[in-house]
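Notes taken during the Thursday session

The instructor put the following on the board and asked us to keep it in front of us for the whole hour. The protein is Aspartate aminotransferase. We were told not to look anything up and to reason only from what is written here. First, the residues (400 in total):
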Amino acid sequence: TWSNVPAGPPDPILGVTEAFKADKDPRKINLGVGAYRDEAGKPYVLPSVKKAEELLTASKPDKEYLPITGLGDFTKNAAKLAYGAESKPLVNNSIAVTQSISGTGALRIGGAFLSRFYPHSKVIYLPVPSWGNHTPIFRDSGLEVRGYRYFDKKTVGLDFAGLKEDLKNAPEQSIVLLHACAHNPTGVDPTQDQWREISDIVKEKKLFPFFDMAYQGFASGSTSRDAFAVRHFVSEGQQIALSQSFAKNMGLYGERVGAFSLITADPEEKARVDSQLKIVIRPMYSNPPVHGARIANTILSSPELYSQWESEVKGMADRIISMRDKLFNTLVDLKTPGEWGHIKSQIGMFSFTGLTPPQTKALAEKAHIYMTADGRISMAGLNNGNIEYFAESVSKAVKD
Ligand code: LMR
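Then, after some discussion, the predicted structure tokens were revealed:
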């Protein structure tokens, strides 16, 4: 029956974890998937999350179904975290928001909703490069995917002129996907002034801005500073769509906690959009999982846990920054050919090293070091115990 099914390639990101797991060498390092590791290289359950789970267990919650759009208190608090408590559309009750199966699920709901109801275009522009899953998510949602220039290989920074030109040349009212902060995979973000300019172009060209905010808190260590772009667009009166993930900033990877929201004109329009979000979601997965949303909501709704959590996010961001400094210094000490300043200037969880596909392949085969073929490394996978071995191996791969 299935003789016509061709073998598919491994996932460019999650496939790296499979290869890593199959490697038996004790020196092996996985810098593929963006998942935080502590100083000992171990998965990290945030103390605020542990505390929230204790409180939850003590409250003996039931296991009933959530509504289709999820836990109401969680979605309210998630929106507050992204838009800010003072946000006008939030105060006016005109943000439609649903819980989602983390960031991917939020993007998928958004893609499906836009594909069904956005009346002006079926075209979405993604930055080049973008997170590897963006293209299949939006393609499978029924949208046509195109690219706008983002990363400049020569400067290893933002191609701001190219970005502006491409957005200006996009057909009016196209959808444009923007990484709210800590761009994945490059670690290169626009400055606040550049965001203001991007917002002006999006407004002028009547483009529809769809923000993916998977790393709120990871870029600067502050959740409100990292929400600058989202909040600026909203303060300019733009009706954005937003995908949020709590995988990274709360370390809730496998709990699949996220939210999708859309700004509407008023509460009446919001109610209509809400009703259709339910119709999009119900045939996909009925309703979302409850446990992770309860954890996130316990943190977001308790002032003490919230401030503890914020300092833990900052702690993760700071450890990554210290690894950037150390990696840069070690590569320079080893007289590694090339410019490595971008290791320090890039932000968020990833560094776009500039290593080529043959170099990344050699690192996997000879040094048991795994990363995505585009040369992206998850900085969070480095620690004082493995960074020197990593730097020496990179230095060797570059010199070979
Ligand atoms: C990543 O880019 O590594 C993360 O967003 C995890 C994933 O699902 O790809």
